[in-house]
Amino acid sequence: MNTPTSQYQPVLRVENLDVRYGSFQAVKNVSFYVHPGEIFGLLGPNGAGKTSTLSAVEGLLKPDSGTIRVAGYDYRKQPLHVRASMGVQLQSTSFQPELTVSEIIQLYAGIYGIPLTPEKIVAILAGIKLEDSANKRFGQLSGGQQQRVSLVIATIHHPPLVLMDEPTTGLDPQSRRQLWERIESMRDKGHAILLTTHSMEEAESVCDRIAIIDHGQIITTDSPQAIIDSNRDKPEVIRASRRGKITLEDVFIGLTGAAVRS
Ligand SMILES: Nc1ncnc2c1ncn2[C@@H]1O[C@H](COP(=O)(O)OP(=O)(O)OP(=O)(O)O)[C@@H](O)[C@H]1O
After folding, report:
1. Could you report the predicted ipTM of this complex, rounded to two decimals?
2. Whose CA is nearest to atom 4 of ligand 1?
3. Which is nearest to 148 in space by CA: 114, 185, 116?
4. Whose CA is nearest to atom 1 of ligand 1?
5. 51 lines ligand 1 (CB under 6 A)
6. I want to staple 253 with a disulfide (CB 3.0 to 4.6 A). Which of 42, 122, 219, 240 is the partner?
7. Gap from CA of 185 to ligand 1 centroid (Å)
8. Helix, strand, coil share (%) of the chain residues, nearest 5
9. 3-class SS at 1?
10. Considering the entire predicted model, what is its pTM?
11. What is the whole-number distance in angstroms between the Cα of residue 131 and the centre of ligand 1?
12. In order along the chain (262 residues), what is the average pLDDT of each group of 10 residues?
């Protein structure tokens, strides 16, 4: 698809985003951008506003104010172009468990208008190490296998932007590592990736940049290492440190507080 962006312009540009639920403001003046070939993570305590931000980018909820541009297209003016420019990794509960893996892939390829030959389906399944599972029902797959199918579907139309809400929650270490490698491989092919996570290890391992969000506001944005380096001397971060060495989690706790959110 020809898009009005160049390689050097952000694929996703969110500016001054506000999201309200009735009188409660969940997202307050949030701005960030994600470039092609970049993995950007949204981190924050429970209820910080990560999913609300992601849902606004996905088009699932209408922001109260602010602009969202994807691949240069503005939601308000070109919503169909915006939707065609993004892929969303759906939760496994979004898929009908009685459909086979190959039926699900064909179904979503059809929705995006992507023709798939039987050979292409075999190649896709081989790419996610599920070549023997074409006729297995989705509900019979393990959590890690379901995640792989979900990721293939999210990128079947080669969207410039891929969105993932807590993609590795519930996966074992092996499946988590494998998913990180798949996310990095998407990044290396030039996709821009926006994900939410509660895992500091995930943020440090795969994210090129992160935003820490709390009470609906971004409190810092940078690479994980730069965020550690610029906050390591703050007394609240040193107080949060457990083993002498300052980690991203120490910075996160120092900046957002140790109290558990209700
Ligand atoms: N549909 C809704 N109606 C009312 N309030 C909502 C709704 N959805 C979310 N909220 C509130 O908005 C705030 C932000 O929620 P959101 O789900 O965006 O946070 P989050 O950072 O994704 O949290 P978590 O890490 O727990 O998933 C919370 O206080 C939440 O209770």
Report:
1. 0.97
2. 21
3. 185
4. 21
5. yes
6. 240
7. 31
8. 40, 25, 40
9. coil
10. 0.91
11. 38
12. 60 97 96 97 94 94 95 92 91 85 92 88 91 92 89 92 90 88 93 94 95 96 97 92 88 86 66
DSSP character at residue 137: B
Amino acid at 6: S
Indicate the SS3 state at residue 13: strand
Q: Is the CB of residue 197 below 6 angstroms from any atom belonging to ligand 1?
A: no
Q: 182: part of which helix (H) or strand (E)?
A: helix 173-188
Contact 53, 17 (CB under 8 A): yes
Which residues, in sequence order, are bridge partners of residue 23?
A: none
Joined tokens for residue 210: 């992160």
113: left (phi over 0), alpha (psi -120 to 50) or beta: left
The label of the residue with tokens 């699932």 reads: 60
Long-range CB pairs of 173-177, under 8 A, 24+ apart, other chains included: 174/144, 175/142, 175/143, 175/144, 175/147, 176/202
